[in-house]
Input
Amino acid sequence: MTTVVIVGDGPAGLSAGLFLAKNGVDTIVFGQDATAMHYAHLHNYLGVEDLGGSDFQVVARRQAAAHGADLRDAEVTAITPDDDDGGFLVQAGGDEVAAEYVILAGGKQAQSLAAALGAERDGGRVPIDVEQRTVVDRLYAVGRVARPDRSQAIISAGAGAVAALDILSREAGRDVHDWDSPPSD
Ligand SMILES: Cc1cc2nc3c(=O)[nH]c(=O)nc-3n(C[C@H](O)[C@H](O)[C@H](O)COP(=O)(O)OP(=O)(O)OC[C@H]3O[C@@H](n4cnc5c(N)ncnc54)[C@H](O)[C@@H]3O)c2cc1C
Output
């Protein structure tokens, strides 16, 4: 099974984790719930009229986990290319995890991990294309790590979804949506 490691557990990382796990991908989200969302109060997240950022995080973490994302309370300390499999080896909390894809969703803190892999910063941000791909194959950057100076929760969550759909599409060999419909009773 394809394994995706997500570095960061704010809106960007949890959104990517939700979409991937919901669609059957082995998904590990590393983070210690130290997101800036704990300083935010949402009035500008469409569909959410008035919600504390910490309350948002409680729901988001529960939602991602309920769909199968493995939320691990650890910091990612290093990521190196896995020369045998073309993916990555991720060091976190004393463990090493092999992954076919990595999504950097760690905010500004994750920029050094990107640089170490060759996805160099450009003016304080990690360059990405419209699918959130970096210049390194199978390495994505979403949310604040890619656009630190224009950061909004809804943009981060959307970027996580974009990266997840791109991975799902690459694995399926066709374009993939994740669409649900109301139950027909
Ligand atoms: C005071 C304040 C008020 C705000 N108000 C609003 C608002 O009203 N509306 C709005 O839309 N936005 C608001 N924001 C911005 C909002 O918080 C950010 O847009 C949002 O948190 C970005 O989400 P993200 O997932 O990209 O990154 P973050 O939320 O920064 O999440 C990154 C996560 O990754 C973790 N991480 C980093 N490196 C590693 C690593 N190596 N290993 C494991 N984990 C790692 C971090 O600890 C963090 O938990 C506010 C921010 C602040 C500071």
